[in-house]
Every structure is written in C-alpha cells, then in structure tokens.
Amino acid sequence: MNDARVLAGLIPLVVLTAPVCHAETYLTEDQAKAVLFPGETFEDVSVILNDTEIQRIEHATGVQVRDNRLHAFQTSGGGWILFDKVIGKHDFIDIALGLQPDGSVKGVEIMTYRESHGSEVRNATWRQQFVGKTDHSALKLDDDIKNISGATLSSNHITQAVRRLLRTWAVALAG
Amino acid sequence: MDNRVRRCRPLLGTYVEIAAAGPADTSTLHRCVDRAYAAIEQVHGLMSFHSTDSDLSRLNARAHLEPQQVHTWTWEVISGALALSHETNGRFDISIGATLQSLGLLPGTSPTDRSAGFRDIELLDDMRVRFHRRLSIDLGGIAKGYAVDRAIGVLAEEAGVLSHAIVNAGGDLRVWGESAPRYVEVCDPARPLEDRVRVTMPRDAVATTAHDPDSSLEVAMSAVIRPADGRALQQYGSVSVFADTCMEADALTKAVLLMPDDEAERLLHAHGACALRLPASTARNTAK
Predict the structure, then answer these.
(1) Which residues contact A173 (CB under 8 A, 6 or more apart)?
(2) Which strand (E) or helix (H) includes residue B267?
(3) How would you class B52 by CB atoms within 10 Å of its CB: exposed for 0-12, middle for 13-18, buried for 19 or more?
(4) Residues 81-110, chain B, touching A (beta carbon < 8 A)
(5) Rounded CA separation A48/A46 (Å)
(6) Contacts of residue B204 in chain A, CB cutoff 8 Å?
(7) How many contiguous H segments (helices) and E segments (strands) does chain B have?
(8) Residue B74: CA count within 13 A, CB half-sphere
(9) Hey, are the CB atoms on B197 and A130 less than 8 Å from each other?
(10) Which of A75, A94, B15, B111 lies deepest, with the highest CB count within 10 Å?
(11) How many inter-chain contacts (A to B, CB under 8 Å) are there?
(12) Are strands A91-99 and A105-115 parallel, antiparallel or unpaired?
C-alpha cells in the first residue's frame, strides 16, 4: 500500500500545508495568574537559586536545573505560582504551575508551546500521493487555529519538570 | 463578536487543548473550560492503568473474584469496547493488558489466565462488571476518545454562553457548535512535525493512530496488538477515523488498522464513519 486512501466516504482534502516552526501562545503570565487563581493578587517572590539549593533539587529529583532563576509569585490566598521553561526534544515550552498553600499541585497550564524541527524541505513523495485528491475550492485561510491529529506527543517531560519545580518550591520558597 | 479562549494542559500522557468561543466574557469562558478539564481528569482517575485506585485497577485486581461495581462512565466505555470486540471478532480488544506489560508499554506484570479474553468480561446490572477468568484489561485504546466526548458534553451544556468549542487530546479531537472550525491537519506519520494535510471533517470527531519507523517524534507509547499472534503491528503508517463520537473514532482506528480495506469499509459504514489511511514511509518510498 503506497498511496493515501479514503475509506467509506468522501473526505475533502483541502490543501497541503508545509508548516514552518510553530508557536502557540495560550496564556500570558497575567492570564495564567487569573486562570489559576481567579480574583487573587500576587506578590513577586522570585529568587536566584544558589549552588546548594540547585544541588539539593538535582539530587532529590534526578533532574537537571538549567536555570538558576526561579520566577514565582505568592498569592493573596496563600498559594503560589511558578513560571518555568521546559526544553524537550522538539519543543520549548513555557509553563505555569499553581500550588496550594501546602505546596501540593493546584494546576498546570501550558502558556506557550514552541515546536522546532530541522527541515523545511518539502517532501515530494508526501505531496505526490495527494495529486488529484485536493479540493482548493473549499480553501479557508481565515482561521488561525491549528487542529492537529496524528502526532500524539508525550508530555512526560512536563511531568518531570513539575517534579523538579515541586522540589524547588520546597527548597527555596516554602516556610 | 465572540470572545475566544484557548488552553492547553498536560493530561493523559499528552497535551489536551480546549478552545471555546462565545458571547460571554473570557473569565466565564475559562471557567467553562476548567469544568471540561475536570471531566477529563475524572475519566483519567477512573480508567488509568497506572493508578492503583482507578476502577480499572480494581477490576484487574478483583473482578475475577467477585463482581465489581464501577462508575457509569467506566461501564459505558467497557460496554462500547465489548460491542466493538464482538462486531470485529476481537480486532478491537481491551483484554491486552498483560501483552502490553510484556512489551514494556505498561508497568508491572499481571498473573492472567492465558486462555482468557474479552469474552470473559461480563456486564451485570447495577453498573457491575465480572471477569470469568483472571484478566488484565487496558482502556488506552478508547478512553482518550471517551474523555474528549465527556469534555464536549460539559461544554455543550453551556449553549447560552458558548457558541462553539473544540477539544483535542493528543490528536483525538471533537468539535461542538455550528460555528466551530471543522478542519483538521493530519500528520504524515513519518514527518509529523513537517508534513501535514488539511482535511475538512465530515463528522464531529476524529482520532488518528500512527506508527512509522522514520518518525523521530517522542510520542506517547502505544501499540496495536494483532489478535492472531499477540504481537504488535509494526510500521503501519496511520489511520484517521472520522465518526460522530470521539470514543468510536478512537476505538475504530485500531480495528481498521487490522483489517483489509473492504472489511474496514463495511465496519465504518455500520458506524456512519469514514477513514483516511496514510502509508508508512517505507511503503511510500517504493511509489512510482
């Protein structure tokens, strides 16, 4: 089987896309604060981690601390919000982690997702299989939302980052 | 002019995006989205293989000893799964937990009766489930789609506040509302970040199952198991199924992958669904 095939129906293939490096911003910092802690106010408690703190975090979690700057706020309700950048194999993601006053997780929000990949070269065999099957008459370019299916990305490195940040909170911010 | 919000959270081992648009203010839209995420977390809590207090883990531990009562949602998913297993003569099958463990795709080991299969799962009244033999079931091939349906269900209740919504859990996607953008970009299984084709959705939901040896993507680990020999299907490219519900779309992808075209078409017709097959790069490289 060496061709794209439609089964049991007509699926209009509208247009071929050749996406460039893609970034999606879901929330700004202020929006993340409002979403995780609606109605609360925030006090900046950002710190620079010292070598001892970094060692303690790395030793406890097995995860490398790439940046010694911790950008964080305490909320008027006693909770915390930590902002961080997580670097994966193909992506570079800004996250917001909301914590309850006791340091347990309240919520994790992806703020900006940046995809990076090496190649902008269009793959000729990929395009060839759709020749004669595309319907440009239904082309709509006015929507900037990308609904993507077929790449079930793993969020495990976010889980790992949250583990690192929980330890960071315990080491540098708690009590 | 509608307000719009778009959120993304790491859930179900992948990323779950929820977009909502409507005449309400953005804080109200965000609260609707929060409730939709809560439904997804609830599905995860009930059906996770990894969590010892999920309905699923309790079934695997005890349902062969005595019937176990489960949440309505768990019961619905198992019911849908069994119907599809019977319809496809086991091409879709949730009783593959032990196989997935032996492949290292799920943690731990399960002592199971090797002759046991989906036919040993019995649904009883009062939301109870019994296993006639010791089994290990995994709902990874259907629960993500179901979680999307439940999230959409929450959003659809806000018809005065929302005009449309989209939920996308790692590529299992469903739209709601007349004004919802109804297209999806389906990835080349070999180069999912670089090559995509935009298709107009003929149904409200789509799910894609993909495997290509050339893909360098860090994907959430999964496998499609062949009932004939219990081995994982390799290098199959991708299948995207378009159906009215995301649970159906999700489950049907596995069955379609294991069937020749004519049988797959009959199955899809029976569900009012359709599918797009994309070849693996290995097959494509021999194209004229």
Answers:
(1) A45, A47, A70, A72, A74, A80
(2) helix B261-270
(3) exposed
(4) none
(5) 7
(6) none
(7) 8, 12
(8) 24
(9) yes
(10) B15
(11) 223
(12) antiparallel
CA nearest B206 in A: which residue?
A: A149
Residue reference for tokens 């909320």: A75
A150 contacts B208? CB cut-off 8 A: yes
What is the rounded distance in angstroms from the CA atom of residue B162 to the CA atom of residue B24? 7
User: Which tokens sit at B31?
Assistant: 């609260």
pTM > 0.80: yes
The residues near B80 (Cβ < 8 Å, ≥ 6 apart) are B142, B146, B247, B248, B251
Q: How many other β-carbons are positioned within 10 Å of the β-carbon of residue A30?
A: 9
Please name the residues in contact with A41: beta carbons below 8 A apart, sequence gap of 6 or more: A75, A76
At A59, list the tokens: 């030793």
Q: What is the per-residue pLDDT across B74-125, written as a single tens digit (0 to 9) for each?
A: 999 999 999 999 999 999 999 988 888 888 888 888 888 888 899 999 999 9
The confidence score (pLDDT) of residue B198 equals: 87
Q: Do A2 and B283 touch (CB under 8 A)?
A: yes
Write out chain A residues lying below 8 Å of B13, CB-based. 154-156
Q: pLDDT tens digits, residue range B13-38?
A: 999 999 999 999 999 999 999 999 99
Residue pair B93/B139 in contact by the 8 Å Cβ criterion: no
Amino acid at B196: R
Whether the CB of B252 is below 8 Å from some CB of chain A: the reply is no
In chain B, whose CA is at the least distance from the CA of A112? B8
Measured over the CA atoms of residue A130, residue A136, residue A140 and residue A141, the dihedral's sign is positive
Average pLDDT on B220-235 reads 77
Give the N- to C-terminal CA distance of chain A in Å, as an integer. Answer: 62
